[in-house]
Amino acid sequence: MRWLWHICAQVRLLAVATAIAGQLLAPIARADEIAAEKPLPSSVEAALLLKDIPEGAPVYIRVFKEESELEVWKARTNGRYALIKTFPVCNWGGTLGPKREMGDSMSPEGFYSVTTGRMNPTSKYHLAFNIGYPNALDRALGRTGSYIMVHGDCRSVGCFAMSDNGIEEIYAFVRDALAAGETSVPVHIFPFRMTAANMKRHADNPARETWEPLKEAYDDFARTRQPPEIGMCGKRYVVNPLTPVGDDPDAACPVLIGKRLAPISPRVRKRLVNADPDLEAKGQKLKGVVVSSSGWDAFVSGSWTSTPARPAPRTQSIATSSDTELGALQSIVK
Questions:
Q1: E strands within 162-220?
Q2: Is residue 233 annotated as a catalytic residue, yes or no?
Q3: What is the structure's pLDDT at 157?
Q4: Structural domain of residue 227, as residue ranges?
């Protein structure tokens, strides 16, 4: 069988070389090329070919606020997901913890999704898609706000702002998956990479009480390489429920829920990690974690300090709050 494996590998490499050559020989993109219609870069197409992943395969997005990173994962034919590319998040709003109300300048944490109707190819912030905040649980908990986007232009408070080049690629990933039949692309937003060490480091954070389902989803994905299934009941999230749980946060939870998982072995997981080095996009991270001086109440009242991860290279103008296309609109880099 080894000879068959070598033939398959050679076929894949030939396909990759053909794809790259096609890109190199293609006409140079026009300056007025429509951003929302741009194909994925040849390097990404090559990575998908090497991983045996179709361009239209389902997509899963994870965002980590503290690290200012957005990951794009895509499904293999066996249902397990491979990390394709990690993008720097240029700006996001507020501090660690969920968004609670309109005007608090916070970026949400939780489980959201993008559908075809939430794509905005004509955004004045280059390209954008709405993540669907507030979801049903947010509304049940009395959280307010709207128009929370992943978009370009590298400036925001409540949204997740990318570079224009970054949003073009992310938009293409989501666009192609939706066009190929994925009904909604999950976008799961975490305060940070929820390792045991990071959880311990943030043990005193006032938002910690909201992180249990996020930690559970983070751990489940590490074990299965499959996006967590999320239900809602009893005004809380339920992660990977065995007993069917709907999406009504006001409904009573079943007495016994259980957990449905299909873990992969540590050996297989290690092999997948070694076989799937992800691409990393270049770009700035202008936003650091905002640390509250006296807890959550002080933050929402305005008594807080900010430490940028890196100094801003230039001053950015403040956008108008009347433009609901962006969400919470102003520059966090003054």
A1: 185-190
A2: no
A3: 75
A4: 56-306
